[in-house]
Each structure stands twice: as C-alpha cells, then as structure tokens.
Design goal:
Elements lengths: L1 E5 L6 H15 L5 E4 L9 H4 L14 H6 L7 E4 L7 H5 L5 E4 L2 E3 L3 E6 L2 E6 L22 H4 L5 H8 L7 E3 L13 H7 L3 H7 L5 H10 L3 E4 L6 E7 L20 H6 L1 H5 L7 E7 L10 E5 L11 E3 L1 H9 L31 H6 L42 H10 L4 H8 L12 H23 L52 H10 L34
Parallel strand pairs: 1-2, 2-3, 3-5, 7-8, 8-9, 9-11
Antiparallel strand pairs: 1-12, 4-5, 6-7, 6-13, 10-11
C-alpha cells in the first residue's frame, strides 16, 4: 500500500492533493492513503477561524471549507492528528476521532485505527509541562489561556497509548520525541536550524512523554512535523520483546516460570542474537514551495482491491472503555494509577485481556468505521465574505457532534466536552440529529408544497414563489455600525449581538424589507430619562474581550 506522509498541512489541502496527483501521474501509481502530522486547520467558517491560537494578522481561512461544504471531495482517504494551529472548537467535538469532512478523518486526542491491516496510532497536540497533568477542562468560547492549553498533550492519552500491545506499524505525532536528534544526522540538522542547539543542550527540544511512548510502543515507523524541517533517524530498541502483561493484582500473564528460564539460560546464550527492532523516524516540513513536506512510502498490507478497508482497533476500544473512569475535566493536577510497593488495590495495567476483547463483540458487531459525517454548521461563503479579514467575528459556543454522541453511546464512555460543560455549570447544547443540508432540503420541500397548495386554491394566475434562502447561504452583517446619537432610550440597552452569527433556523431580512416594515409601524416618541437616573453605559461583554487583546503564538 502506497502511503503519502504530509508534515504541517496549514490548511493547504488543494496544494497537497495537487502534489499527490502530480506524483501519481509521473510515477504511474495510485496513492491509497494520506497521513497528516498536524496543523491541519480544519476551519469550516469564520467562527472556527477565531479559535486558532495565532495572531490576528495570520488568520487565513485557506481551503478546508471547500471539502467540508462538498464543493470539493478528498481524492484519497486522509487521516490526520491535531497540532498547535487548529480549529480547536471543531476538533474538541471529536475527542475519540471522527470525520471532519467526507473522506477526511481525525484521530482524536489519541487514537488507533487499521487501514488494510496496517495499524496506525497517533496523538494530537504539543507538550507543555505545566498542562500535562491537568484534565481536559477547556470548552469554547475560549479565554486567552484556554485557547492554547486546549491543544496541549495530557497524561491520560499517553497513559492509554502505553497500554497497547502487539505491533504498531505507524505512529503519528506533531511534536518530536526528546533526544531523537541523537539517532540521526545531528550536525546537518544544526546547520539547517542553528537555534536548536540551546534547546538540545537543555533537553527542551521535543516531548519527553513522546520519548517514553517511543520506547514503550516501538512502532515500525514514526512520523512527525512541527519544527518545519526534514529529519530522519533510526532508533534501535534493545529489548524488542515486551514484558509480560501485569494484571491489577501484580500477577504475570506469562506461562513460563522463572525456574525454566534459568534452566534454559545456558542453551539460549549459544544461539545467534535476535535482530534488534528499529523505529524509522521521519519529520517533514510545512506545505510550501521547494520544501520537503511530502514523502511517499510503500508499506506491506493486505491486498484489497478498491477502496481501503478502514476499521477501529479492537484493543484501543477496550482501553478507552476500561480507562473511562480516569477522565478528568478539572484544571488542577491529578495522577493516574501506577505500580506501588505492597498491596495493590487499584488496577494500574489496562492492556486488554482475552475476556475483555471478546466482550467487545457485543457492542460492535463490525469494526468498520461508519461513514456518518454530517454538516452541522454553515460553511464559509467566499462570495459574501470575501472581505472577512476586516470583519469582527466572535468565537462560537460549544457544540456536540452526533458522531461522538453515537460512539460514546455504543461503547459506553463519556464525552470529555460534555463533562467539562457540566462541571462548569453550563447547559448541554442539543446534539444535531439532522445535518444542515437535510434541514435545507426539508425546508425547500415544505415551501414548495405550500406553493403548490396555494396555486391549487387561487389558480394558475398566482405569482411564482420567491427564491428560498437556505441556512447554508445567509448574508452576514458583521461590520460594526457607525456611531450615532439617538433619543431612543432602548438603544443603549442593546448588546453586541449584531456581530454574532444568526441562528441556524433564522431567516435574516434584507435592509429594504426592514425599512418597509419600519415605515408601516407607528412611531413612538422617546421619553428622556429623569435627571436623577444614571445614564446607561454600554458594557463590553466578557466573551468579546479576546477580540481586542494581543496574542502570542506558542
């Protein structure tokens, strides 16, 4: 199976797919899968764009919205992880992974899937020590702090990935593992990036939790991005055979005894040494001309014609289920169970047993990942919002994704976003049962039926129905109005809702219609307030403060 590896995508999906098409044409081959190592930037609209942790001048809608809206379709199955430049609100709706667009799949905070028998694992985000031991407490709209902490790696995802057993073919991360530069051409790397030297000396270049995962999981391939340069390394693993699985009571699942091992020690010493397992590490650049941002590999897989088989990993599903009680949505530090001296009352090893794997079949009759993508918010409209960089747009509120709702219900796990909202006293938003496209189609059919009934009553001489305005095609009034002086006392009581997006079912009126209705209404003379009453002062809502504050990129 031919797999294309992309470094930092930065929203340039059209360029990436065009590059793949050129490679296929020149080499006369077919690429079956595209893997992206973060900074995917799945911004559907202008509200999503406001959740990206970059300075305002760098906000760019890019091209993902075309694949979300259906204007374009990804020509190859695309799997990606999150980085530190993402539409965090959208990805937080899919903590266990899901489709962000047709044929484009997000792995979640951490995830494991199988494509044509190739086992692919990954972890999203970057490492920051001050957030590693916290829970997933963030939810939109984000503050200046949570806008960045939301994409920081947490200990729970690392803990879960350490429970995996068996062979991992490919591992994806955005960060580099700490010390990975010692296994490649370090001198050449420093010639490209001389300012890496200080971080190397202090041990700050890369992620320490990822270094632990590299030694624990020992994948055949490890792909990363983030540092915007190409770097290859070979990491040997001296103890290629993993230790026997330990259960909660500290007993070993290995059937061989220590005495038999000592008896065979002399005989095994005369055998030739086993080959040392090696992880092939490759970091790639960002998608720019004359940059090494794409690499194509040929990896052995199950020979399957047509579209690749895309399935959940059974062991990973059991790990999610058995560690569900370890989820935290608190901002304070907390610690996960570990092996301790003396009596152990709490399970600390969650590598699935045969009984746990067998019980999974009662919940999932088939491990095939369903194609259940739904559009739940309107997509960006370049014709009506071409001047979007000069518009004032607020952050979106929290939404629940129907994909996550279905997955959590079947597996019996909790959605961290739901828990975070409830822990902070927020009401849970309704899960969109029908997609926005289905709502638009039903609206069209309903209005057409009404028009036909009206023609039947009044005859064929009735005027034709007016053109429909669907929820996905709405005119947005996002410009701040010019300051005016009015005698209307109620004007001072209005909030900042003029700069918010209208609701999904709202049918916004044009300026001409609004003026005509205003003429028909009787005018009410304003009554000046009493001299003793204090003047009404318009207050800036807390949710809009982040628009006027400076941002620093990670």
């Amino acid at each position: 199976m031919k797999i294309a590896i992309e470094g930092c995508a930065h929203g340039e999906l059209e360029r990436i797919y065009d590059t793949i098409a050129c490679i296929e044409k020149e080499s006369n081959t077919k690429i079956d899968l595209l893997l992206c190592c973060g900074d995917f930037q799945s911004t559907r609209n202008l509200e999503d764009l406001q959740t990206m942790a970059v300075p305002k001048k760098y906000l760019d809608i890019c091209t993902f919205y075309k694949y979300y809206s259906g204007e374009c379709v990804a020509p190859v199955l695309t799997i990606f992880i999150g980085g530190n430049h993402e539409a965090s609100n959208y990805l937080q709706e899919l903590p266990y992974g899901g489709w962000v667009a047709p044929n484009i799949y997000y792995l979640g905070y951490a995830g494991v899937v199988n494509v044509n028998g190739v086992r692919i694992a990954g972890i999203s985000g970057i490492y920051k020590g001050h957030d590693f031991l916290r829970g997933h407490h963030e939810f939109p709209p984000y503050t200046e702090s949570t806008c960045r902490s939301v994409y920081h790696v947490r200990q729970l995802e690392v803990f879960r990935l350490k429970q995996l057993s068996g062979k991992i073919d490919i591992f994806l991360s955005h960060d580099w593992p700490t010390g990975i530069y010692e296994y490649g051409n370090k001198a050449q790397l420093l010639r490209k990036k001389p300012y890496f030297a200080a971080d190397m000396e202090s041990g700050q270049l890369g992620s320490r939790p990822l270094e632990e995962l590299l030694k624990a999981v020992q994948p055949s391939y490890w792909f990363a991005a983030h540092l915007h340069c190409k770097f290859a390394a070979l990491v040997p693993h001296q103890n290629a055979t993993k230790a026997p699985t330990q259960m909660g009571d500290g007993s070993s699942s290995s059937s061989s005894s220590s005495s038999s091992e000592s008896d065979d020690e002399e005989s095994t010493s005369r055998l030739p040494p086993k080959p040392v397992a090696v992880t092939k590490f490759l970091a790639l650049d960002k998608c720019l001309p004359r940059r090494a941002f794409l690499q194509v590999l040929d990896i052995p897989s199950e020979a399957i014609e047509g579209n690749p088989t895309f399935e959940y990993d059974a062991e990973w599903l059991v790990i999610l289920q058995s560690t569900n009680h370890l989820i935290s949505v608190k901002e304070n530090y907390y610690y996960l169970p570990g092996k301790k001296a003396g009596a152990i009352a709490e399970r600390f090893n969650f590598t699935p047993t045969e009984e746990e794997l067998d019980s999974l079949t009662t919940k999932f009759q088939s491990l095939k990942i369903p194609e259940n993508f739904q559009r739940t918010v309107p997509a960006f409209d370049p014709q009506e919002q071409s001047n979007y960089k000069h518009m004032v747009v607020g952050q979106p509120t929290a939404h629940l994704n129907p994909q996550s709702n279905t997955f959590c219900s079947v597996l019996g796990v909790d959605d961290p976003l739901c828990l975070a909202l409830l822990a902070n006293g927020k009401d849970l938003p309704a899960v969109a049962v029908k997609s926005i496209d289905q709502k638009a189609e039903e609206t069209i059919v309903h209005v057409q039926d009404q028009c036909q009934d009206q023609e039947t009553i009044e005859g064929s001489s009735s005027p034709p129905p007016e053109p429909l305005v669907t929820p996905s095609k709405r005119k947005l009034n996002l410009f701040l109005p010019a300051p005016t002086v009015t005698a209307d006392a109620t004007a001072a009581e209005k909030d900042d809702s003029a700069i918010d997006l209208p609701e999904e079912d709202e049918d916004p009126k044009t300026a001409e219609t609004a003026e005509s209705e205003a003429v028909d209404k009787p005018k009410v003379e304003a009554v000046p307030p009493a001299p003793s009453s204090p003047p009404s002062v318009k207050k800036l809502k807390r949710r809009n403060q982040n628009i006027y504050q400076a941002e620093d990129d990670d």
